[in-house]
Design a protein that fits this description.
Number of strands: 13
CATH superfamily of the largest domain: Glycogen Phosphorylase B
CATH topology of the largest domain: Rossmann fold
Strand order of the largest sheet: 3-2-1-4-5-6-7
Helix content: 40-55%
Radius of gyration: 21 Å
CATH class of the largest domain: Alpha Beta
Strand content: 15-25%
Length: 364
């Protein structure tokens, strides 16, 4: 079965967790059953060579970094390239107004409806107009969690059978060597101190400021390491760190290599995740894969994904977050065991099988 996959929306390093989500689930699809044809920006080929090794890939004739150019290419070049496919999979949350089908549409979340103030007026109007039309055109809609599934059904009156949960697949990983961890600890200023880590782009809903406030109630030794690219809240976060009396305990290296990121997560006392909204929240499962305890907010998707394998904090109060970190430390062995069990529900194979099921359903 030939499946054409629209990745023109994927700008490596700029679209957050949705990039890893779709990349990993595609890697779990049985290549003996499906002939996957990836249609994408040339930058995707450079940043995800594992995809080019496994699937046929075709790069756009022009860069799709500019949204107007990308939309034009979706309605022309992509529509032409996708002809004859048994299924066309649009992974970026929207579907072009013209083009072949049947269509599988991936919706990562409906954040634009929950938090419209985090979006520019132009972007919000675009999504408000196009997402409902995209949902109407799709034969099957894939989502990462039951939370997003219910959100889509409620928002658009979709038949629940058309919405398929495809969980995030986290690959099996080996803990970085002690030598590598020592090097990374020194590189980021936490060589001889306990620390917690939060990997997230500085979007407003990621709420990094909660962790700056947490330092008021946490022990004097523990540092907070904030890794991830710059988002709309970057300047606000920088000002908040600068004004904090604990600024010397906040490390903000920005984007780091995958190797450094893994090392920082693997050796942290806890991964702390105060985000106020997620469609899934892959870093919490990635932390479990490294035997790192998880402390997260009570955002619906995070509660669903973490289950009983993490500490859930139901407010943004600094003392509650500090207390939760202390609890995670005291229950480390138990949380590691529960995390090992929990992550088995979120492997690449589990994700790939769910996506394959969606392709079959769309193809009829």
């Amino acid at each position: 079965m030939r499946v054409a996959v629209n990745l023109t929306w994927m700008a490596p390093g700029r679209v957050g967790g949705s990039e890893e989500y779709l990349t990993r689930q595609l890697m779990g699809v049985d290549a003996s059953e499906f002939a996957i044809d990836l249609l994408c920006d040339a930058a995707v080929l450079d940043h995800h060579p594992v995809l080019t090794e496994r699937f046929r890939t075709t790069a756009m004739p022009f860069s799709g970094t500019h949204r107007v150019i990308r939309i034009g290419l979706e309605h022309s070049w992509l529509a032409f390239r996708a002809r004859g496919a048994a299924v066309v999979h649009h992974g970026g949350g929207t579907v072009p107004m013209v083009g072949p089908g049947p269509i599988v549409l991936t919706i990562h979340d409906l954040q634009y409806r929950r938090f419209p103030h985090y979006f520019s007026q132009v972007r919000h109007r675009y999504l408000d107009a196009l997402v409902p039309r995209s949902v109407a055109r799709a034969a099957v809609i894939t989502v990462p969690t039951d939370f997003v599934r219910d959100d889509v059904v409620d928002a658009f009156g979709v038949d629940a059978e058309r919405v398929v949960v495809v969980p995030h697949g986290v690959p099996a990983v080996a803990r970085p060597s002690d030598e590598m961890i020592d090097v990374v600890r020194r590189r980021y200023g936490v060589a001889d101190r306990p620390y917690v880590v939060y990997p997230a782009i500085t979007h407003p809903h990621k709420a990094q400021g909660v962790l700056i406030d947490m330092l008021d109630a946490l022990d004097d030794a523990t540092a907070v390491v904030l890794i991830g690219g710059e988002g709309a809240a970057e300047q606000d976060l920088a000002r908040r760190i600068s004004a904090s009396p604990h600024r010397d305990r906040v490390m903000r290296p920005g984007r780091v290599s995958a190797r450094d990121r893994d090392s920082l997560i693997a050796d942290a006392d806890a991964l702390v995740f105060p985000s106020e909204f997620e469609g899934f929240g892959a870093p919490v499962i990635e932390a479990m894969a490294f035997d790192t305890p998880v402390v997260c907010s009570a955002a619906e998707a995070l509660v669903e994904v973490v289950g009983d394998a993490g500490i859930v904090v139901h407010s943004s109060a600094s003392d509650e977050w500090a207390s939760a970190v202390d609890v995670a430390r005291s229950r480390r062995d138990e949380l590691v065991r529960l995390g090992r069990e929990r992550r088995e529900s979120f492997t690449i194979d589990v994700s790939g099988r769910a996506l394959a099921s969606a392709y079959r359903q769309a193809a009829g």
